[in-house]
Design a protein that fits this description.
eleven-stranded mixed beta sheet, single chain, Indigoidine synthase fold
Length: 307
Amino acid sequence: MSSAFFIAEEVRTALAENRAVVALETSVVAQGLPAPHNVRAAALCETAIRQAGAVPATVAVLNGQLRVGATPHEVERLADLARTGAVAKAGARELALICARGENAGTTVSGTLVACRLAGIRVFATGGIGGVHRRLSALEPLDVSADLAEMAATKTAVVCAGAKSILDLLSTMETLETLGVPLFGLGVSQVPAFFHNESGLPIANVSLEETAAALLLRWGPIAQTGGALVANPVPSEVALPRTLVEEAIESALASASREGIRGAAVTPYLLKEVAARAAGRTLQTNVAVLESNARAAARLACLLASA
């Protein structure tokens, strides 16, 4: 195996024995959450996965090596490096160059899916996927996350609370349909919107057992390629009011337009505005969503492994 790719012994053994394994990304550690909440969230996710009977496989790039099964110490190191700005963000496109340069990076959804494909991991838990970004004007170029293409190319179920509310959710779901990525809602009839469960976008309301059965057919007898989006609802006790989130986004979009904010700068601007309007509640929601999704992913992985 290339020195640029490493699978921890616990993960490698679990995969060889066809036991349940759940991948986790580390962009949330390196860029998504402030310290110390980033490390705490990573630990909560790993604990939730173990308690549900699966093996966590946290993915990160350390010294140019794509590691599947990063240790808690390595996650803490990544968080420490992030404080100094010495950590990159590794999506599928940037991954090879980051490894070639011997850099450290947190992996995004698309970058983590590359690792899942290499390792043969069938379930991946994250907060919310990327997607089609909202445009400030019709003249602005379309910005589509690499997450969607990687989901279509990788036989891995992505368990998440839908796509982030700041995105164009309708266009995101339509793009997944075009790419042939099926959507499963775990006890919900609407696609969750990361901060709340009221996107208004329909989704097949299924159980974990039905989801596992459908995935086994998709990847087995029907022989379809690509993964699936498994939407886990936002825990009701931390869900934010939809009106609060939408008003914050609309206000931030108008401000961004007036201030000439464009491109990659729009997303952090929108997130900051939503957080300000929600009086800091977005952090609590984010951590709870990550933990809840990790637990649901572990249960799904166990069902797939036992089939």
